[in-house]
Structures are given as structure tokens and as C-alpha cells.
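Moderator note: this is an archived Q&A kept for reference. The question asked for a predicted structure of one protein chain; the sequence and the answer are reproduced below.
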Amino acid sequence: MEKYLQCGRYRFPLIGKDARPLVMGILNVTPDSFSDGSENADLNFLLDRAEAMINAGVDIIDIGGESTRPGAKPVSLELELQRVMPIIYALRDCGIPLSIDTYKPEVMREAQLAGVDMINDVHGFRAEGALEAVANSDCALCIMHMQNTPQTMQDQPQYDDVITEVSDFFAERIRTMQQHRIEKNRLLLDVGFGFGKSLPHNLTLLRQQKLFSERFSLPVLAGLSRKSMLGALTGKPVELRLAASIGAAITAVAHGAQIVRVHDVAETIDALTIWNSIKNINQQGIEQ
């Protein structure tokens, strides 16, 4: 495992006594995200949500201006920039690393100039010009696996061996990024729960988070919050998936994920605090 994740202006330890599970809070600037989109997402509303995350102890804020839910329609470059740039500029000195959730190289470039610390790409930096856009920065780069596109990804996804195929994808992406002289300590992996996966695929990948981390010596990010796989398991609609989302985050960390991407920041941090305290009881010095 790399000693730390280089995340723009920040470094997160990945091994040693200071390493702990990290919480990435989702800040969607979209009207059509599957669980928290809003037509009324003006700047003050978004700043209030960001402030609540910061007060709760969030580690990273992930800003997204284009929904990638199943069947979502692409948005134009101009509209995505109009959505995300004001909140990036408003938050860039908030003391918390900022991530931009985008696959467009032009948005990557503008966001880096504005001060983001991570780029979270659901297409795994496969768009033409994406690698060139990020090669010379120190931003962390989240490589996500997705089969097909958001418009078609849940149309009967199929794999001969989901673990092998996702691993092969990561191996190719890491090799290509290193050919672009991108340092490995900037990279993290996301298997892409719900992005071209059935429920059995998702559960298999969840159980094997540690395998990916150990195979590539890189941190793994798990994005399970409020997703349809949790609805399939619990029978609950998206607005009633808080407990399932917290359970999924704890399960992901217990199985090897270093970062969880969530909507419900305060609740997830509380749950992880308990889990981490028990895991490290001797190091924490808690009275027995």
C-alpha cells in the first residue's frame, strides 16, 4: 500500500497509526440526481449543505454537476461548468479537500485551476484528453469502473468473471496512467457499484474490496449510499435507505475500503467512529 494519498493540497495517511477510514460527502449540483437532486440548488443552499458536512467532520467534499444515475441524459459542457464552478470557488478555502465528479477534460482543467484536490471520473479517465488534463497536477484521481454508459449500464449487465474483469480494467488504467507519468500515490480505485452491475455482481465486489486494495497497493473508494442495490435488499425506497447506507459503508470498510462516498455524512461518521474505536482499541487507549 502507498504510504499516503496525495490529494492536491492535502495528504491522507493510508498506513500507520494515523490512517483511518475517510468519509467523502456528496454535494450534487443537479436537478435530477437519483436521491438528492434539487431544482432549487442555489449557491446559499449548497453552502449550507457543505457547512453541515464540514461541521460533522467530513474528509472530502465531492461536487457533481451531471447526474450519472441509470438512464441519465448527458448535460452540455457549458451547463456543467455553470453548475459546478461557483460552488468550487466558494469552497476552495474551506479547509477541506474538494473533489469534482466529472468525466469531461474541460471541466477537469477548469476545476483544477479553481483549486480542486481530487478528480472523480466515472469513466476512468478514458475520454480523449482526460489523462493530458490531469497529468501535470497533484490532484488525486479516482478511477471508477463502469460497464457501458449511464444510459445503458443497467441493461442486463453481464460478466464472465466480474472480479477478473474489473481487475483487468484497473490494471490497464494504472499502466496507462503511469505511462503518462502520473504518480501512483495520486490514484485510488472505485469498482463502481451499480454502474453496469447486477445485485450479485455488486455483492461479490463488496466482499472483495480488500482484494483490489492489496492487488494494486492502492486505496479503494466505495460508493453505496442510497443505491438501488440497497433497495433491492431491504425493499425500502430511496428516502428510507439511511440505515442500509450506513450498514453498507461499515461493511465496505470492514472488507477493505479506505474511503466511503455518502450522502449522510454525520450519521456515517458516527458509525465509523464506533467501528474504528473498537478495531483500534489498544491504540486508542480506551479504558477497559
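Archived answer notes: The mean pLDDT is 92.
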